[in-house]
Model the fold of this input.
Amino acid sequence: MTKRMFDLFFALIGIAILLPLFFIIAIWIKLDSPGPVFFRQIRIGRYGREFSIYKFRTMVTKAESIGRQITVANDIRITRSGRFLRKYKLDELPQLFNVVKGEMSFVGPRPEVPKYVALYTPEQRRVLEVLPGITDLASIKFRNESELLKQTANPENVYVREIMPQKLELNMQYIAQISLRFDILIIVRTLLRVIAT
Done:
């Protein structure tokens, strides 16, 4: 209950403060490329329930129909505005609305698409026992994930076999010591990592 109150309170404050920035980003996206301002994608949340995650659109419309679900650095589908938004994680800001709706938390395992969740082992599915988050330990460790994948011949294979298991292990560690204090520490570390970019 304390975690939920923290999430709801700061998500509402965040939306109120960042609303002018939302409008600026929306205008930039519309001027930069045709298509909607927001991107919605089905992800798997707590208890395996599907929900639509919100992001600012950073790629051309129907990007998933012309390429893989994994995005690597210098992906030709990424728009000019999208490169900037991705670099500073501004594309993730609309997930504050997911937090308000109770579908996500500020901190928790990053939600995956159904395709990859289907590959989880029974032990790894424990990450679905908590709300997914905007950030987590894996987001900090793999801050430059797209750059790492760019250097591989088969990005999706490397993600599934090497990166995803490491992310899930970090998520297990988070669940084992979950607390509001730990959440705040992860949020601070995330902000410092983004600022240092």
Summary: The beta strands are 38-44, 50-56, 105-107, 133-135.
